[in-house]
Records
---
Amino acid sequence: MFTGIIEELGEVLAWDRAGDSGRLTIKAPLAVSDAKHGDSISVDGVCLTVVDQGPDWFTADVMAVSIAMSTLGERKVGDRVDIERAAALGDRLGGHIVQGHIDGTATLLTVTPGDAWRVLRFTLDPEHAPLVVRKGSIAVNGVSLTVSDAGDDWFEVSLIPETLAATTLGTLTPGDRVNIETDIVARHVQRLIHFGAGALESPSGAVGAFAAGSVGIYGHGGSADSPATGGNA
């Protein structure tokens, strides 16, 4: 799991393709400073596994499905990529829960500059549109962002100077593609509504139990009106 707070900009050192898969080597001194074989590292929002490493670089295998669904196949030697190490237990959740399991890609439509910030508008596939809401969260190239506005086939994010400087998003131009991951909570709710209509209607179902306050964020037996000891609304 990741938080969507980019820790460093990595550099592609090698991209060895073998059929429909490949092996990607990235220079990322911070990421490998405490990494070991088998660790997860987010590269432009895609969760990859360390299979080899050196003093300031790591190598990861990239499966065919990851290449097909993401922009990793378009990367070339010298390109910059957004890097984040997996979150550790006890870390602050500065962004939102990001899995590194992207939904696909989006294309940058427009860049609207402000005094020190920019508004970026991206395309949005119809299947993802219900999961992207104004003021909700979305990960773009692994960067946790707040959706400033959204339509049926587009969404916008507003980038502050820090985000523009610390991530690859500051170098994007119209026509560029990015990896997107919608909010995991929204995805679970969508699936529950589609497949669990009975649970929604039945007081004994999981959703009914949540509504009754027997389980949920307020603690065992708590509710919004009467939170469990130590909890809060």
---
Amino acid sequence: MPNIKDFNILPWILILLCPYTVELTSQDQHIVEEFNIVKQWNKGDKLYPPNWEALDKRPLPVWYDSAKIGIFVVWGVYSVPSVYDEWFWCFWKEKKIPKYVEFMKKNYRPGFTYPDFAPMLTAEFLDTDEWASLFKSSGAEYVVFTTKHHEGFTMWPSNHSFNWNSMAVGPKRDIVGELVTSLRKKDLRVGLYHSLFEWFNPLFLQDKANNFTTQEFVTTKTMPELYELVNNYKPDLIWSDGSPAPSSYWNSTEFLAWLYNYSPVRDEIVTNDRWGTDTMCKHGGFLTCSDRFNPGKLQKKKWENAMTIDKVSWGFRRNAKLDEFLTIEELIASIVSTISCGGNILINVAPSYDGTIQPLFQERLKQMGSWLQVNSEAIYGSFPWKHQNDTSTPRVWYTEQQIKTNKAVYAITLNWPDKYLYLKSPIPVQDQTFVYFLGTEGQLEWTSPPQGGINITLPYIPYNKMPCHWAWVFRLEGLQNG
């Protein structure tokens, strides 16, 4: 446990005092009433009662599986020091990792505290409409924004984070509200990331010291924030994180039962699996299992690969090196392998303290968008085929799509072949099989060699005339049993 002298406790003192110095707002009272509805659950109710067996039976809303690609935006007070990673406060003050400690000694005055960074989160160049336009141009279908990371700073004017939120200090703006409005103008689905715990909140530390047999932090902070986010912003997705305690401590099943049965977003809301130490990769609407989870094979339940363009950090880093970012080839490979195996991919970008998204992140997103303009039919709304990758030719992945009354199989090759593309898998060709190269006109010639499969003759296309330059997609129609 960190020494209380190591950080400024003023924001937490104010948070603790606030509930006793103001009356509950009408909205807060409504939240309490809704919470009590779930706590007094009628066992005869035919909806989703607050237990994992029942909650896991809720069908995943169709929009999520069809969307395939989302953008993750990790932004908070850690974007001000912007070195090493978004766990800066914890690694500096609790873990006392030498490079973090030395950085602060070298660059900041004695007695400087982490909350002193908050006024420097200026966001003077933040234009959420520009962000939304960039995300739309990337081809993403949904965006997940960090409303609160483990530092506890809320990016909306929460009634439960007094003096430690984006309206009270720093930007002096409701960042969540502005971004939600901008995303919806671009018809992008809205996801809200929320950390269940906070590193240095005294209420959480006290519950932890009590082996999580008390729930002061949950009832005073975590759950009121979640109800507030849902009622105020009506998201399409709740991306929970930071759960160093069992789901019973967090009252996770009670919240999800309310979310699925009574909330204003009950029909369309999607949730992940990070609701307690006992839930990851097991319970929830879809599974994340771990950061950058990409198993390379089909899973029994819908899953998501939450990953980063910056291979080192989720938060913005001023000290990042060029080779620490994914190339566009690496990014496309991650997208293709994820979707071929039935997952969605959530691609993180990290804004700077001033609200700008750096050019390298912009470039990757726009490159991705240009690739998807050519190859979208192999991605959006697709399904995994019976084979995920080819059994003979390396770096070939498959998806399947329903086209009217027939099915099409898409072979996505990450390497451009010389003259022929041989697919084995096996490919059940017949005389009525037709092959197309996405982004070009006409059918391609093919033969069926003695060993089976299909050998596709590739057209000669000058480099500057290629429909795309990073991965190439071939549509196969009229396969047997296809």
---
Amino acid sequence: PVFMPVGTRGTAKGLTAAQLAALGCRICLGNTFHLGTRPGSELVRRSGGLHGFMDWPHNLLTDSGGFQMVSLLELSEVSEEGVRFQPPHGGEEILLSPEKSMEIQNALGQRGGPKSGDPPDPPETTPRSVRWLDRCVAAHARPEQQLLFAIVQGGLEPELRLRCIRAMTQRDVPGFAIGGLSGGEAKARFWRAVKLSTEHLPRDKPRYLMGVGYATDLVVCVALGCDMFDCVFPTRTARFGSALVPWGSLQLKNQRFAKDFRPIDADCGCPTCQR
């Protein structure tokens, strides 16, 4: 299994690409929505693709961008055509269709898996996700260099999720992402949905559980058959002054640590704990 740090705009916050590589990271994420609107996919392409833009020689994965538009932008509108929205930094209205998403991800040029999917809102979006997958497959200009993962939707409804899985596994794609989860639902329901998904997805292709990064969830979901994970949790936690250690988390902004010069974890070999 692999955990992938999130570099939304081409960098993991608080870390350089060289530091990520030194930690053993061999794949990280970029976001189609953010990179496509600022600085724009054409500028990234001219800089040598996302690899050149980041100075990153290893694998990359980019997402479809639809989730960010619906969750972050109040004035976005989802239709069969795509997601229509006003860019947060100003400018003309943009339509991000499956074809446009693939065009941007092809221009970003990452070696890894661009993803195709619909913002989670079953039951309406579940069949639409399948139709959008077909449009993405047809529009994909670099299938030999970039692997396209299908995003399985269906929320917490077993029948909807199974219906989506049955349809998507009929398409010849290199891997599958499990979407529509990790949104605050009860753990028992979340784990049941993950188990249902992994039981019915091909075992000989990667099964990527999106947006999961809590330690307990990683252990449980690896046991349930998931191969890939991503989450902003580690970097976001660090930015707010917390350190993740084997016995839990330390709130480093707590007054009791103000004059404590000991390493965070004396048994850890990371650069921070070695000082």
